[in-house]
Amino acid sequence: MMSILRQQFPADDFALLALVLVLPLIGAFVNGVFGKRLGKEGVRLMALASVGGAFLLSLVVFAALAGEPVPAEGPGARLTWTAWEWFTVNGRSGSTVSLDVAFSVDALSATMALVVTGVGFLIHLYSTGYMDKDPGYHRFFSYMNLFIFSMMVLILGDNLAVLFVGWEGVGLCSYLLIGFWFEDETKASAGKKAFITNRIGDFGLLIAMAMLVYYAGTLSWSGLEAGAGGLQETRTVWPLGNLQASALPSFLAEWLTPDKPIQMQVATMVALALFLGCVGKSAQVPLFVWLPDAMAGPTPVSALIHAATMVTAGVYLVARTSFIFALSPAAMAIVAITGAVTALLAATIAFAQNDLKKVLAYSTVSQLGFMFMGVGVGAFAAGFFHVITHAFFKGCLFLCAGSVIHAMHVRVHDDDRSQDMRFMGGLRKYMPITHVTFLLSCLAIAGCPPLSGFWSKDEILYKAATSHVIAPNAQAWMPPAWWGQLIYAIGIVAAVGTAFYMFRAYFMTFWGDFRGWKIVKRWKDRGHGHHDHGAPAKAMKGPVPHESPWTMTLPLAVLSGLAVVAGLLYAEPIHIAPLEHFWEPVFRTASESIGTSEGAAAALWPLLMVGISAFVVGSGASYLVYVKKRGQPAASFVAAWPRLHRIVYDKWRIDELYQVTIIGMLDALGETAAQVDRLVIDGIIAKLTALVTALCGTLLRALQTGRVQVYAAGMVLGTAAIGWFMLSPHADAAVDDSELRKTGTLSLTATPGHGYRYRWHLEGEDPPKDFTTEADYRVSLQRCETKRVHLAVQNALGSVDEQSYTHCRETREGCCLPLGQTPKVKLPDKLPKLPQIPSIPRGKHDAGIIKQLLNPDGHKPPGRPGQPAPGGAR
Amino acid sequence: MSAVPIPYFLMLAAALFATGAVGFLLRRNLLVILMSIELMLNSVNLTLVAFNRMHGGDQNGQILAFFVIAIAAAEAAVGLAIVLAFFRLRGSVRSDEANTLRN
Hints:
By secondary structure, chain A is mainly alpha-helical. Helices cover 58% and strands 9% of the residues of chain A.
């Protein structure tokens, strides 16, 4: 079986990838175009079959890749398929860089493809139940399949350009699915916000591509990995080019141009530009604001796109281009600190949220921060392993949230309220499967040993504390020695926070008593009963929350099972890490630049204990606050610091900050433009034009009498004028002075007319008596001379018209003499040949001889006025 | 018997044309205006025929005169129809009463 596969698809023409890609695309096309006619059954079959088929084929691809021999040196096995040549661009110093639509799979992308299609299939299955009542059923699955296709393009693209196509494709699908219920204004604008924020990051990715085309001359992964060393050169980034600040006032120019030009490594610039793209796509500080709003989409979308797959594309890209990042300690430090800050900031925001999906959204942002922390400290494999475990447990958590919301819809038909944890509670009685799967995933994300999240998160934290980037060269900027410890400390605090807010959500949702009863009766009572666990609400008659159908619970069970056991793929401390071995060749180049501190092995178990205690502290505190004390401490905290709570609840007002700074500036710019339009364009230019038009109209209206005879009078007058013009002679002549300067000849040709006769003469001469038919006249001028020619024209009726033409033969300097004067000196038409410079005989000479040799006759050099040169006169 | 010199024809035609033009400009009766137009057309015909005789050879001037006569007939038909319609509308044939567009 395997051998047939290998025979059919050689490693350099692995066309099986086309099938993996095209299946979801077909699904998207069929559901999008024929979805309405297919009916729900057909749409369901199409969507599930295409993604399921892609998953099975991904398994085959994975098996084929695993069977491939791994070279001992360089990057690992790679199966490539080039679809077609896309286009070529001009590279550095005239070289041509060709970009192909090529796809390839290696250990990293094969794993990612399995996760995307596998989790994607489960979420598709879940969606068939969740979206059952929605009128946009086929549209939803069309978008979902299109998303899987774009994500596969992103993962399997063999170069950055193809990856970018997928990158934009998933951004588009994200936009379409966040705004899936676009009738709702807030949901439509949430989609817009996600798209625009992502575009800011994509701009960085475009710049990175341009720089790589220029400096590396290729965009393909293998080419970049081989040529990454060339990115070590430094470039001056400020002052830009050969910019001169001379036009500015001196103090500003001094301030703008530093004494030493600021230099930067190319690798740092490329890595930071790439990372800007990742910050946008993976919702890191400061571009994370779109992800919480993206929860406006249907819950399966949040699970698939905004938790499991798309948002991890940034981590994937950093892992993919790890060899570039590893060249630049500065870029790595920025990646790590961005991840750490995001992890902590998002965790704090999650404390204050009441919306179940919002808690999970901030949790996702926080976990993405952990992933970037991992890849930023050089633990590429660990960081990417967190992507996979996160896909399992966070996908499961979101689907559980969807299941809970589905159940809550029995009591309330309001989107916001059905997601509010203050109305939940005690749901474990009503939905046992959802409860168990949620608990397992919650334990996994909180870092409970030996679940998957424990292994991945602790590997990241361990590596943060013990590894560092080795400087590629002496000039490179290095972070201080305590940098790793700082990242580690922030990470531990964020891990405690993770355990706390996740268990807070768990306890508020599934423990205690169901508080949803009062929604129906007094649902307007929102109060500020934030963590109000007061008197238990009485059970009211009416529908009871219920467990979801099997299509929804099956994916939950599978994902939570994976969340439990997936850790064993990369459990480094207990030496069960098959994935590490599998991925090792992918990160081989990059890991050469990563050093390990002394005593790292000894610190393994102590650091692991710290990780476990972070879980115990966080979850224990949560149990204490929300179960033992029934939320009392949290309520009193809010009462004590209401403003702090408000700020945290409003996600530290980052959105508001953007509103007043960037958006405010844009608004001001727009307002200024509008004022200019109103005052200058409308006020002056438009009014002036209108005035001129009105004036012309007023004048011309006087002629428009409406009397036919007045018009006829105009016609008669016009005819008479034309007749008079035709009957009178016109002494016009065409003057040809093209030869004037050179030879002194001026030719004049009179304009012909019926019965015309001409008489030419020069100024100062007597005019001839008779008119002749001679229409041409020539006159010759000397240099600087001016002459006037008179032309008289007589027509058949005997009337005469006269005109004169004055011309001067000018030289370059402009020496025109007044009319009637002739030049005093006749200048030569041609300059005489210069006398030959005599050659100086060899040997020693008196100083005077040179002067004599140069001018033997002692006269002035020829060609000046007053000294007629020989043979020059004409 | 000597032929009438060409300038005589031309002077007569000019006089006829001037009469027609002045009549067209000054009279207010639509029927008179139409007749003035006919007068001008005929003066042109006279010029054409005179020049045809002066140049001999071909008969282009004569032929053109026939065209002008045909056009004049058509013009008279259309013009009279307009005058009739105008009379039905206004009960008058004065040209200065055709001022609907202006007011």
